[in-house]
């Protein structure tokens, strides 16, 4: 659904060379039942293992990926991040820069914090209103989505996943090949349409990391007397997979 949007398609065609691969033979769904359900209930973000967008160098190294389906407004931001990572990591001839990985780590850390701030906003009463400001209503194959309070869960799940994804990328010492990661990547929920003879997606093992603190809470902590871990900020970040 993300790629059917005109702005998304223009950005993909301008910045990238698009390709599609099906990880298992025999799957052919022409009923669009799943897509209509996503539009109705999880339009803003549905970080499922069922689909993943990978961003590769010409040598087949994956420098970014995102699992799931997203509204055009969010997916445009994802594409812009991929483009920024490409110029951070590589020169004009797609040779890896000497300090590319270190600078990409900083970018991932910044994105992880920014997405966690958005996750915190989605959990606030009526936070969905500020987060969907400027988002257009959508009509996909006769199913219309209008933004409302029911979008809060979708936004929270999506931003929580994107934050965890960038936090994980910030720990990577080297870029994986497509074959190394295509069946083992982070995702947000377990929905799948894999066939029995497909190669199934596995969750990569992760070491526990400190939970990110949303900017709103970081500000409150800085302003409060040092009276201990009143916000429970030592709780670990839960692993999320494809």
Task: Based on the model shown, name its key terms.
single chain, alpha+beta, two-stranded antiparallel ribbon, two-stranded antiparallel sheet, disordered C terminus
Biggest sheet: strands, sense, closure?
2 strands, antiparallel
Quick one: overall form?
globular
- Specify Rg, calculated over alpha carbons: 19 Å
β-strand percent reads 5-15%
Brief summary of the model shown:
The protein contains eight helices and eight strands. It is of the alpha+beta class. The radius of gyration is 19 Å and the shape is globular.
Task: Describe this entry's structure for a reader.
The chain starts with 5 loop residues before the first helix and ends in a 5-residue tail after the last strand. It has helices at 6-15, 33-41, 72-89, 100-123, 127-131, 151-169, 178-181, 215-223, and strands at residues 45-46, 52-56, 62-67, 69-70, 138-140, 143-145, 209-210, 236-237. The chain has one domain. The protein has 242 residues and is of the alpha+beta class. The longest helix has 24 residues, at 100-123. The chain has a two-stranded antiparallel sheet. A two-stranded antiparallel sheet has the order 2-3. The chain has a two-stranded antiparallel ribbon with strand order 5-6. It has eight helices and eight strands, in the order H-H-E-E-E-E-H-H-H-E-E-H-H-E-H-E.
């Amino acid at each position: 659904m993300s790629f059917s949007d005109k702005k998304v398609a223009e950005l993909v065609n301008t910045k990238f060379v698009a390709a599609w691969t099906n990880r298992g033979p025999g799957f052919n769904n022409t009923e669009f039942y799943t897509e209509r359900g996503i539009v109705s209930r999880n339009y803003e973000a549905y970080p499922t293992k069922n689909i993943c967008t990978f961003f590769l160098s010409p040598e087949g190294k994956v420098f970014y990926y995102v699992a799931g389906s997203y509204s055009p407004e969010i997916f445009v931001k994802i594409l812009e991040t991929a483009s920024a990572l490409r110029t951070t990591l590589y020169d004009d001839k797609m040779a890896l820069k000497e300090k590319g990985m270190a600078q990409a780590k900083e970018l991932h850390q910044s994105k992880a914090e920014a997405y966690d701030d958005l996750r915190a906003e989605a959990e606030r009463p009526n936070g969905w209103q500020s987060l969907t400001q400027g988002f257009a209503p959508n009509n996909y194959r006769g199913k219309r989505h209008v933004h409302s309070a029911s979008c809060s869960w979708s936004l929270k799940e999506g931003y929580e996943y994107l934050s965890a994804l960038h936090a994980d990328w910030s720990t990577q010492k080297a870029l994986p090949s497509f074959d190394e990661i295509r069946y083992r990547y982070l995702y947000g929920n377990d929905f799948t349409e894999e066939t029995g003879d497909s190669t199934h997606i596995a969750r990569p093992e992760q070491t526990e990391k400190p939970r990110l603190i949303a900017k709103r809470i970081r500000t409150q902590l800085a302003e409060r007397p040092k009276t201990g871990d009143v916000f429970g900020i030592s709780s670990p970040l839960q692993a999320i997979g494809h």
